[in-house]
Amino acid sequence: MTSRRASSTATLAIAGFLIRIHFLIHHLKPHGLGRTAWIYWPTQGSMIIAATAIWTMAYLLFSTEEIPVIFAWGCVLMGAAWITAVILNNYEHIFEIRSSSAIFSFYVTSILAAVAILQTALDPGSGPSYPLAPLVVFALALSAGFIVEAWPRGNTRVQQLSSVGMYGKANLLSRLTFWFFTPIISIGLHRIITADDIKGQLPQSLAAYSGYKRLSCAWNEALLRHRRSSTSSRETSPSLFWTIFRNSWKMLVPVLLSRVAIVLFSYTLPVLLKELLDYLEHHESKPVSYGITLAFGMFTASLFASLLNTYNRYQMLIIGVASRAALISMIYRKALRLSAGSRNESSSGKIANHMSVDADQWWDAIVYISMWIEIPLALAISMRMLYNLLGWSMLAGVLTMLSLLPLQAWQARAFQSIQSGKLKAMDERMRLTTEVLSSMKIVKLYGCLITFGVYALWGGPNFTPGTLTPQTVFVSMTLFAMLKGPIASLSDATTSTIGVLVATRRIQQFLLKEEVDEADIVRSESLPRNPLDPVISINSASFSWASPLNSPESRQDSNEHTALLSANHSPPNTTPPTLQSIQLTVHQGDLTAVVGRVGQGKSSLLSAMIGDMYKLDGLVELHGRVAYVPQQAWICNATLKDNILFGNEYDEGKYRQVLFACGLEPDIAMLPGGDLTEIGERGINLSGGQKQRVSLARAAYDDADVYLLDDPLSAVDAHVDRHLWDNLIGPSGLLRKKARILVTHGTHHLREMDQILVVKGGSIQERGDYSQLMSFKKDFYRLIKEYTALERRRSDTTIRRRQSKDVTAAQELFAGEGIDSDDPSAENEATTDQDTSDDETKGSTKPVQEQDVEMQKAKAVLIGAEKMNEGGVGFDVVLYYAKEA
Ligand SMILES: Nc1ncnc2c1ncn2[C@@H]1O[C@H](COP(=O)(O)OP(=O)(O)OP(=O)(O)O)[C@@H](O)[C@H]1O
């Protein structure tokens, strides 16, 4: 038996080592840092000595008739395995900077085997005598090699030169015991651990970007394979769930194997227990060392089972965290690429749910997924062992436990409902939880009592009343106790797996949503070589917000549509376009205004240029980098500075220039933390005008070639409007050399435009400069006149209101602006001023005292560090650990 086990272990080791050598050579690059000589040579030496010793033993065994020849062959294979380990060790030192886990595990297995054989060899009455000397040399050589290998390599030159983090450098023992994390814990003894302390120390597989790249590549490949496959229909899609599993297979295989090992180690315990009880009953026939070895074996088996269990859970969590991060990145990137139609179907709340709830399932439930290896294996082993012990009588116990399963399921459901009740009333939750916990105890005890009763009645083989020996009672009780684990986990594993499956399917459906068609717009990142060539050129193009494939007509004719597609024709274009017959050219440095009444398609024209709309026909060409400032300013939850830099490198000169051009300097001076003040959802709300200027500053700092500005001056008051025009957007502003397209409702800057486009009913009705358009006396002329009249009425009302309040202030204000009643633009400027946008007022013109109070409050909320619990681990925690151990 022992010889067969030795042969199969050695054969498995040889196969494993060869696979590892192949992996190292073909999948990794040499680290090029040299070899850690004082670890390399001693370990190589120990392994060679061990192989020689075991071969010597094989030689001696071949010449004795006492021991079966198969044992000698086991030794030959063991020697061969250690020579393969020598070759592997050589490659490990070239490609890896940490000790090989494979060799490490083989060390442990071989040492334990050698100790077991030594124990038998040392026992005078145990039968055949083994050659002791080579066996001792074998065990000593391996122990020496193991000690050198287990020694942390942290101080070696190779590890110090390497940029890999503490996890990457840790050997298997260190990872199993989390020893590698000790430096961080000791930092925690002296001060608070910060994110910087663990930066770069954790496994690379946890980095969100690399995880995202791997998973999105795997998903795209799966989609491609599915599309190419002749059997797949258009309605089906590959499974994201299996794609995630396939993508993590390199990490999953060792983790799942470790689950198998945990089950095997756990079930060694009852076997050893039975042996020990047998030995205690008939201890005269065997030496004391046998009993000690059995007890030591039980200790080692539980030790390995719990070490592997921790390792398994940790690795599963790593897989869960990496998958969750990759999924969140994929959802985020997808959200940026959704077509107009898909955006209408997916609200931002729904997308946020995919990120926070659905993706989170991977982190919550991943541990349970590995249970699907453990549960069937554990059930099979325990039932087999119980059968050996009790015969078919074991069914009585097993069925009794299984009959408690629905009760457990009910218990789990009750627990779940109590959990959700927590959100409604904390007191109610406390009361119910206590009730359920106490009833859970009763049910468990009740389960044990029933099982005991069943043994007593049908304890003998095959349901006959029998004698209960200590071996039968203790061993079968241990086995039944072990059986309860997998049975109890069954409902958790099922619920969690279903939860992950449902959540992943929801994410999958989102990821399969239609995206903007990149081919709609011909883009080039660089500007045209000839400055006279346009940067934007739109030729006879029509655009729609609705997908041409989703129009009712096209849905009705879906069969025809498929036939047409297969015949290589375009689908019939039945969607009414939002924009039609668009003809436009814009050159570098051009300042173009887009004007028109509300809802005529001004913003849509900009959306069409950035590819947000479906292009129905025509040609769109765009050169250079494009910056788009939407009507609704978008601010993210970060500091004002980060909102402007937005990932770009900080350049003091450029940053200051942009702040000045956008008129943000006075605002920053007022903010409690200057430009480091946190703004966005959690921060103070900036006024609409301030947000719009931060948005403009972000675009300006990005230094793009084409600026698409959707009415950015609508929320600012007159003097800020003038400042932005003079210093940023206008002919002498910071962006003067860039192509700018400005959608505007104001009329006061139109005289300075190179080109004005009048949009009406989704098409460009008129184009030209201000005087040309006024001379046409068409839509533009009417628009300006109407606007002027409207503004004059508004202006009169406001002036009257102001005069009654503060005559002097109003006089000063209008005198300064120099209103010319014949000039609509100048009048507008004045009106915009007295409008004194409510938004801006919020940010800048409140009474000073009131602002001070608000700022103080904001300062406390925004700049305060996140609340964190500090202190040592209490005695109760230590006690809890001790009890669990
Ligand atoms: N995201 C969208 N999805 C679907 N339809 C849209 C979308 N945005 C605009 N539309 C539609 O396109 C048409 C033109 O709207 P658009 O916003 O371009 O007009 P506008 O001239 O910019 O108006 P305003 O001056 O009020 O901003 C309208 O019928 C509007 O309902």
From TrEMBL:
GO molecular function: ABC-type transporter activity; ATP binding; ATP hydrolysis activity
UniProt biased composition (Polar residues): 565-579
Cell location: Membrane
One GO cellular component, as annotated: membrane
One Pfam family hit: ABC_tran
Residue ranges of every copy of the ABC transporter domain listed in the record: 564-786
Residue span(s) of domain ABC transmembrane type-1: 255-447
Transmembrane spans: 6-25, 37-61, 67-88, 100-118, 130-151, 172-193, 256-276, 288-308, 365-386, 392-415
SMART domains named among the record's database cross-references: AAA
Residue stretches of biased makeup (Acidic residues): 819-838
UniProt-annotated stretches for the region Disordered: 549-579, 811-855
Keyword Transferase: no
Membrane topology per record: Multi-pass membrane protein
Record's keyword terms, sorted: ATP-binding, Membrane, Nucleotide-binding, Transmembrane, Transmembrane helix, Transport
Name the record gives this protein: Uncharacterized protein
Organism: Linnemannia exigua
